[in-house]
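Posting here for the record, re: iron/sulfur cluster.
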Amino acid sequence: MDIVTRTRADEALLEVSELRTYLHTRTGTARAVDGVSLRVERGESLGLVGESGCGKTMTALSVMALVPSPPGEILPGSSIRFEGEELVGAAEARLRRMRGNEVSMIFQEPMTSLNPVHRVGSQVVEALQLHRGLRGREAAAVAVELLAEVRLPDPEVRFGEYPHQLSGGMRQRVMIAMALSCEPRLLIADEPTTALDVTTQAQILGLLSDLRQRRGMAVLLISHDLGVVAEFCDRVAVMYAGQIVEEGSAQEVFHHPRHPYTQGLLASLPGRRSRGTRLAVIPGVAPSPNLWPHGCRFHPRCAFVMDRCAEQAPDLLPIAGSERTARCWLESPETAAAREDTRA
Ligand code: SF4
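Prediction output follows.
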């Protein structure tokens, strides 16, 4: 496929359109990502939120061109543009350059990404050699600077230590330092705080927020925790069953969720219940990507289900008076009008 390059200043940093990533396995085809469209603007933070298995990580891996093939396949008609350049179908050398110099990703459990038999300093140095061509003392000095920038205590000492000598929060800081080594314009953080205690989680989110502002870097934050995303992100996209079901500013989605699934996610946050009351749960279980429900994929679990919900799949519908969208028949013009009539 030809690589089309545009340089218009108004172009999104990342624009994903109608992304479909399927996994062909012996038990059938899992439609892990099934028509996802999203934009990340320069310097902004977008949160991608949803339960495990909804397709968040597979979306990120698709952007990074890290979906193994086979069994993975990005279907024709999918588009991933970075600064206007189409990446679906691009040559492997171009994708390596993108991963090394433009987009970085950090994962939930840093121990699985760090090599346990190499000192952390040498791993950061290696990343600097690979991405920026630095060598010797210069690379070591920049590595220590990066470790200091991510607020690792005693960076010169930690430079010579092994991953098992560091706490989980410190290891995540090292991973962030390595991700910054290529000076990315987009950082994808996949559940970066899930394995950490609440205090360390807040510190890492604060660090990411500072780095984003200081470096003008955009962040795509993936999390199952809407509270974390609402605190850190400018905008939020909520995923369910391989699709985006609601999108809008973090403030609006967090304070006035419109999709019943988003409402369920928020109601299940401990902080939202008064002491002594039971936590709300979304009934049922998330469906399997091999067998998404017909019609609205949330209908078997939805408290507001209507007849048409099981028959017809809703598109992402604009919410009147805002820049938000929700994939729910409750937002269709006729249902909204009926709601207004009832109110009147
Ligand atoms: Fe619930 Fe129907 Fe909306 Fe789906 S379309 S979320 S089932 S009300």
